């Protein structure tokens, strides 16, 4: 018997991600990648078919089977194979998720409820950073002239390298330079300097010969971070101001 887990697509994303980790035994990184792959398929389908579909709103596995075929062997199979088949694997995993039994889903919900209280504060902080990230992505050309998001299909957004996640990875128009953008919604201290330095080190091994730069954007910059940044002129510090505009309804 199938169950209606939630009517909210945003909630469904999180339930699906937790199901991958707790029921299927996927790593946190894989679960995160699969969750975002469903969003990529939504955007791809809209761009190519002109139809706004959110797969997270689908409750019937039979309806999802159409999209599995389309991205596995159909006309969009090439897109399904992107990222070593991540898009294709994600939609098939979501199909299994919809087919799962009540017992397993209820077990997952119990796990979620037990973690709900301690995740509340963390979730609020992440929400602020996501809003900041979305605002910056929307204004990339204005904030970072001469740069664009690295790779295809927004690959540079939350770019994964050796299990580490870079908030935004940009590439110069002439493809000679990579720019790591690290975001903090509140105070950024000296530890962020070590974090972004590690990202630059990992990128130097993967992209030999590229010029590497970093930019830390935060609501407030700690004095310790300012001093640490003096050791590397390729890492810049910036603070942001959120602007609110009102419109008549």
TrEMBL record:
It comes from the Bacteria. One of its GO terms (molecular function) is endonuclease activity. Residues 129-240 form the Endonuclease NucS C-terminal domain. InterPro entries: NucS_C (IPR048301), tRNA_endonuc-like_dom_sf (IPR011856). This is Endonuclease NucS C-terminal domain-containing protein. It comes from Riemerella anatipestifer (Moraxella anatipestifer).
């Amino acid at each position: 018997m199938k169950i209606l887990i939630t009517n909210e697509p945003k909630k469904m994303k999180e339930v699906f991600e937790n199901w991958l980790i707790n029921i299927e035994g996927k790593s946190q990184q894989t679960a995160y990648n699969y969750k975002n792959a469903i969003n990529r398929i939504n955007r791809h389908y809209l761009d190519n078919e002109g139809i706004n579909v959110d797969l997270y709103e689908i409750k019937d596995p039979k309806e999802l089977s159409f999209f599995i075929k389309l991205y596995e062997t159909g006309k969009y199979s090439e897109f399904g194979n992107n990222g070593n088949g991540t898009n294709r694997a994600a939609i098939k995993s979501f199909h299994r998720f919809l087919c799962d039994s009540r017992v397993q889903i209820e077990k997952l919900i119990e796990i979620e409820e037990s973690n709900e209280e301690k995740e509340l504060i963390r979730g609020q902080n992440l929400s602020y950073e996501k809003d900041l990230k979305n605002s910056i992505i929307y204004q990339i050309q204005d904030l970072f002239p001469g740069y664009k998001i690295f790779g295809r299909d927004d690959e540079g957004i939350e770019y994964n390298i050796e299990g580490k996640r870079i908030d935004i990875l940009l590439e110069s128009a002439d493809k000679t330079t990579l720019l790591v953008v690290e975001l903090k919604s509140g105070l950024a201290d000296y530890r962020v300097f070590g974090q972004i330095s590690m990202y630059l080190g990992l990128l130097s091994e993967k992209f030999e010969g590229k010029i590497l730069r970093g930019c830390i954007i935060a609501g407030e910059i700690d004095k310790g971070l300012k001093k640490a940044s003096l050791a590397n002129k390729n890492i810049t510090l910036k603070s942001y101001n959120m602007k609110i505009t009102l419109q008549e309804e």
